[in-house]
Amino acid sequence: MSTGWGWIMLVASGVVDVAWALATKKADGFRDLSWTLMSLLLLALFVWLLTKALQVLPVGTAYAVWTGIGAVGSVGAGILLFGEPADAIRLLFVVVTVLGIIGLRVAS
């Protein structure tokens, strides 16, 4: 696999990670069976995609970028779907995280 495909797999894994976080929230402490099963399926998928990406990408950079995608996506989803706070300081640190992701990608 090329590094270009590795980056695609990494971004896809980050997006699936956000979906996993949302499904886990909806699973309500694993009391809702359908959301629990969805959560487990998404967990397996994002781990598989991340594992594929790590075959060609440096682990430190890839893991930091993956974590950043998950964090930024989860914050955004929490704001949009669950009415979590969107105050200025929180959004500032989301921007800082995005800049860090871009910086790590450019430096690779």
Layout of helices and strands, plus pairs?
Blueprint: H1 3-26, H2 33-54, H3 59-82, H4 88-107
Helix pairs in contact: 1-2, 1-3, 3-4
Your description of this structure?
- It is a single chain.
- With 108 residues, the chain is mainly α.
- The protein has one domain.
- The protein has helices spanning 3-26, 33-54, 59-82, 88-107.
- It is flat, with a radius of gyration of 15 Å.
Features:
single chain; 108 residues; mainly alpha; transmembrane
Number of helices: 4
Number of domains: 1
Helix content: over 70%
User: Secondary-structure element sequence?
Assistant: HHHH
Largest sheet: none
Global geometry: flat
Radius of gyration: 15 Å
Which percent band covers the strand fraction?
under 5%
Unreliable sequence segments:
none
* Class based on secondary structure composition and strand pairing: mainly alpha
Average pLDDT:
94
Number of strands: 0
In whole angstroms, the N-to-C terminal distance is: 17 Å
Organism: Methylobacterium soli
InterPro entries: EmrE-like (IPR037185), Small_drug/metabolite_transptr (IPR000390), Small_multidrug_res (IPR045324)
Keywords: Cell membrane, Membrane, Transmembrane, Transmembrane helix, Transport
Subcellular location: Cell membrane
